[in-house]
Amino acid sequence: MALLTIKDLALGYDSRTIVEDLNFVVNEGDYLCIVGENGSGKTTLMKTLLSLQEPLRGQILIGDGLKKKEIGYLPQQTIVQKDFPASVREIVLSGCQGSCGLRPFYNKKEKQLAETNIRRMGITELADRCYRDLSGGQQQRVLLARALCAAGKILLLDEPVAGLDPRVTAEMYELITGLNQDGVTVIMISHDIEEAVRRASHILHIGGEIFFGTKEEYLDSGFGKSFLVSQNNREEKDVQ
């Protein structure tokens, strides 16, 4: 069943179009990876899906009883966020703010949800630690637990492994895959095209051309093959 249906969407700033004619559907249980060159509009699309930015044209239709406050979001971290002086438990619990309404306090159910997601992310022993004293990988687990407190059905992730070392990156990918296998619908921006096509159920490629389909369709397409080759060549040059 469709959670999000995107029709003829155009994105940009100050009437300047970055990408247009976006059409895709996200069904319950999907793992959608959004890929493309830098500046192609990936983060702009995610902000638009979150209603943080208005589209230039087109429609975003929400289905299956999904409410906007039930969408969890893990943005790219800033330097300020990494130095935030609060405990792990406080940060995770803040993910429940959307369900508080005008209530100035968290209820028992919300506190239990925060503790559940703390355990789910394997950070129970860190619950009373100050967030800014944690490693990058630990901080991402905290922020993922926070996003899960808001995610009733769907989780949006913007480059969740950026800046992490290979071991921690692999652990983060496994966590996200596990959440999807547990029924959480995932939409993730990724520069790691090989991991994207290995783990995702669907690929949305935006830029000069647009592709949307299953990962198998993407891998079989000339468009997908050429992008994979270009990315591998770029990585080889970076290593040299």
SSE topology sketch:
Elements: E1 2-13, E2 16-27, E3 31-35, H1 42-49, E4 57-62, E5 71-74, H2 79-82, H3 88-93, H4 97-100, H5 108-120, H6 136-150, E6 154-158, H7 166-181, E7 185-189, H8 193-199, E8 202-205, E9 211-214, H9 215-220, H10 222-239
Parallel strand pairs: 3-7, 3-8, 5-6, 6-7
Antiparallel strand pairs: 1-2, 1-4, 8-9
Description:
With 240 residues, the protein is of the alpha/beta class. It has one domain: 3-Layer(aba) Sandwich (Rossmann fold). The chain has 10 helices and 9 strands. The chain has helices at 42-49, 79-82, 88-93, 97-100, 108-120, 136-150, 166-181, 193-199, 215-220, 222-239, and strands spanning 2-13, 16-27, 31-35, 57-62, 71-74, 154-158, 185-189, 202-205, 211-214. The strands form 2 sheets. The protein has a 6-stranded mixed beta sheet, sandwiched between helices. It has a 3-stranded antiparallel beta sheet with strand order 2-1-4, with helices on one face. Strand 6, helix 7 and strand 7 form a beta-alpha-beta unit. Helix 5 (108-120) packs across helix 6. The termini are far apart.
What are the defining features of this structure?
Rossmann fold; six-stranded mixed sheet; 240 residues; alpha/beta
